[in-house]
Specification:
Helix content: 25-40%
Number of domains: 2
Structural class: alpha/beta
Strand content: 15-25%
CATH architecture of the largest domain: 2-Layer Sandwich
């Protein structure tokens, strides 16, 4: 029944790792605006830092990230020098020396860095920021390119969380998306991480890939759990070949239809719940006692560009090509082309391509959407009142949920909206009702399930 509903509401909606979402950023926000915003930040409030490494040594056909394929280290080393200059540009504009409590390296693949790169990068950061005691320093890790020396270097640089890309454990599925990764490769890297004291492990799985079945998905989850990750994310593959040309290499006939996608996700979710993992928002799962599970229980769960997080900072500074910064005043995104990024930084300019200044309405709607994405519910009237706005401001949006309510996807009591537990995978449909930007950017987004 729920799979039939999913098929009927098979549309494209954002993942809502921000609001407004990136397709709606524009050229009105430039480097000068970003410089002013940095100067207005409160030195008493900690920052989060994100670093984008836009390189891989092979291309996974499902990839939706900005990345370049390189076989030599020189482009990576030159890029890191540009990132260091961007760090200096930002630190010079901040009104004081700021504390950083969360650091995240993503890509592409940070596994493209050499061992010495990690020492230099962290040393450079410590010269410009105070890295908080107990700060979470997280790295996305591709097991196929990791060695024990590399893992040892991560630990020596202070990395204490690793996010392991797996997607699936079945060779036919992985071959269909150009990612050969035998189980033994992942198992070996997990052993090295444990040996060198990096015990906080996230594991990424994916539904919606070619040749997946509910039986194979159940086996993938059991295998993943057997490796002992604290957190598991089950992402839905976004097939957007008009945006990511390499996705045309994937056989569309082998992709699961909306009903099977629903069943795949429910199989993974039920399996993880059976193994004792707590469901976190849309697609994350955590062991009881993990920080995400506690944040959910204590109503301090957040959602940002890295997904669900315990990070409470109101400012995330992104460094590197295509990286996005989130500040109280708005969003800023860097140039994606490496040439444009490097030219700007080397000329002493912020490499800002576009952004968006937040209005009061954006902030209000963003809080409603984040509440739905994190807790499957939002007291819309109360959120409006907290923002000094008439509690009925979003009544028309609530009224627009009537078709979803009729299908049992959500319930509305007064101005409190709740997503039905059985329809958790459709939470983005409910959140989209409060998105005033959606219509013009909808084709750039992933399917609702």
């Amino acid at each position: 029944m729920k799979a039939d509903i999913a098929a009927r509401f098979d549309t494209r909606v954002p993942r809502y790792t921000s609001y407004p979402t990136a397709p709606h950023f524009g050229g009105d926000v430039d480097g000068g605006v970003y410089r002013r915003w940095l100067g207005e930040l409160d030195p008493e409030q900690p920052l989060s830092l994100y670093f984008h490494v836009p390189f891989c040594d092979s291309l996974c056909w499902f990839c939706g990230c900005y990345t370049k394929i390189v076989k030599r280290h020189q482009p990576v080393a030159e890029y890191l020098e540009a990132v260091y200059k961007e760090i200096d540009l930002a630190a010079d504009e901040l009104p004081g020396r700021f504390r950083a409590a969360h650091l995240h390296w993503g890509g592409g693949s940070p596994t493209m860095l050499w061992t010495d790169d990690w020492r230099r990068a962290m040393d450079r950061l410590r010269t410009r920021f105070d890295i908080a005691d107990g700060a979470e320093i997280a790295v996305e890790l591709d097991p196929r390119g990791a060695t024990e020396d590399y893992v040892r270097a991560l630990a020596g640089a202070g990395v204490n969380r690793a996010s392991i890309g797996v997607q699936d454990f079945h060779p036919d599925v992985l071959a269909a998306v150009n990612r050969v990764q035998p189980f033994q490769v992942t198992e070996r890297v997990m052993g090295w991480l444990a040996k060198h004291g990096i015990g906080a492990i996230n594991m990424d799985l994916m539904i919606g890939l070619p040749h997946q079945t509910t039986a194979s998905m159940a086996e993938t989850v059991d295998t993943a759990v057997g490796l002992g990750p604290e957190r598991v994310a089950v992402f839905g593959y976004a097939h957007v070949p008009w945006m990511k040309k390499h996705q045309k290499m994937i056989d569309e006939e082998a992709l699961p239809d909306p009903r099977l996608r629903w069943d795949l996700f429910q199989t993974a979710a039920d399996k993880l719940a059976g193994h004792g993992y707590v469901r976190i928002g849309l697609d994350h799962f955590a062991r009881p006692g993990d920080g995400l599970a506690r944040a959910l229980e204590e109503r301090r769960l957040r959602r940002n560009f890295q997904g669900y997080t315990t990070d409470q900072s109101s400012t995330l500074l992104g460094f590197g090509a295509s990286a996005i910064s989130s500040l109280p005043q708005g969003f800023v995104q860097n140039w994606a082309p490496l040439k444009a990024y490097r030219e700007a930084v080397e000329a002493g300019r912020f490499p800002v391509a576009r952004g968006l200044a937040l209005s009061r309405d954006d902030t209000l709607r963003g809080e409603v959407i984040e509440s739905l994405m994190c807790y499957l519910e939002a007291d819309v009237g109360e959120i409006c009142a907290d923002h000094g706005t008439d509690p009925g401001t979003l009544d028309a949006e609530i009224e627009s949920l009537t078709p979803l309510e009729a299908d049992g996807i959500c319930t509305v009591a007064g101005r409190r909206v709740r997503v039905a537990e059985a329809c958790r995978p459709l939470v983005r449909l409910v959140a989209a009702a409060f998105d005033s930007y959606l219509e013009s950017g909808e084709q750039r987004h992933a399917r609702a399930v």
